[in-house]
From TrEMBL:
Main location: membrane
Descriptive protein name: Major facilitator superfamily (MFS) profile domain-containing protein
InterPro entries linked to this entry: MFS, MFS_dom, MFS_Efflux_Transporters, MFS_trans_sf
One Gene Ontology term, aspect cellular component: plasma membrane
Length: 259
């Protein structure tokens, strides 16, 4: 009797993790390069920080409407659309000399992020056997902590060494390579059938949902307020040469002691 062993599609799930990695890196990388970006485009560091705000706004405005509008679309073309959106947004960001054009590109990147986050977890679950769904989701979502703990410090180091434009150019190339990886290793799935589902107002009225959303909003807002402007903060304390180090998990003690 032959026993069939079901395994996780690690290559495909890793591609999803890299997609999350690229998403977070595209969003937060300006935080480590604000002085460079502001000086290059002729704006203040406070204005340069709006790159992250406009990205978040794109995600906020796009996530729910795009998820609803594309619910019945096939999954892989939709995923590839988000990845190509990152490639275009980062390429325009790397090449433009206009702050306004760069802001528009960042908004497009945020829209792509809103679409991707709506896809990622469900995609991972559909790729795996049902009893391994939790592990599949854990692999697919690993890109977020890796981007924050490794990607941002490395990107900041490269940006300080070779210029912020090169860093965003490399992100664009990475997104294009990722698109090829997805075509090769990530299966396609049909969209979801139209079914009766609760409205947003009904979901919002579920007991416990509003306090959780409020706590999440406060946490993310507080985190981003500090994270976005960490480079000017460190520069003001004479630590401009340690900006990349501050993003490493071991960087926090250095910040508290030196400040």
């Amino acid at each position: 009797m032959t026993c069939r062993v079901e395994r996780l599609p690690v290559a495909g799930l890793t591609a999803l993790a890299v997609a999350g990695f690229v998403t977070i890196l595209t969003e937060a990388l300006p935080a480590g390069l604000l002085p460079q970006i502001g000086g290059s485009l002729g704006v203040s560091e406070a204005m340069a920080g709006q790159w992250i705000s406009i990205y978040a706004l794109g995600s906020l405005l796009a996530a729910i409407p795009l998820t609803a509008a594309t619910r019945s679309w096939r999954r892989r073309p939709l995923l590839l659309s988000a990845i190509v959106g990152f490639a275009i947004a980062n390429l325009v960001t790397a090449l433009t000399a206009s702050f306004i054009v760069a802001m528009a590109a960042r908004f497009v990147g945020g829209v792509s992020a809103g679409l991707l986050w709506a896809l990622l977890a469900g995609y991972a679950v559909r790729m795996a056997p049902s009893h391994l769904a939790g592990r599949a989701m854990a692999i697919a979502m690993a890109g977020t902590p890796l981007a924050l703990s490794i990607g941002i410090p490395a990107g900041t180091f490269i940006g300080n060494l070779a210029g912020w434009r090169l860093t965003f150019g490399l992100l664009s190339v990475s997104a294009l390579l990722l698109a090829g990886w997805i075509v090769a290793k990530v299966p396609d799935f049909a969209g979801e059938p139209e079914t009766q589902r609760p409205s947003l107002a009904q979901v919002f009225a579920v007991p416990g949902v509003r306090p959780v959303l409020a706590a999440t909003l406060c946490y993310v807002l507080a985190h981003n307020l500090l994270y976005t402007y960490i480079a000017p903060l460190l520069t003001g304390h004479g630590m401009a040469d340690r900006i990349d180090m501050s993003f490493w998990p071991s960087g926090a003690p250095h910040l508290s002691v030196s400040a």
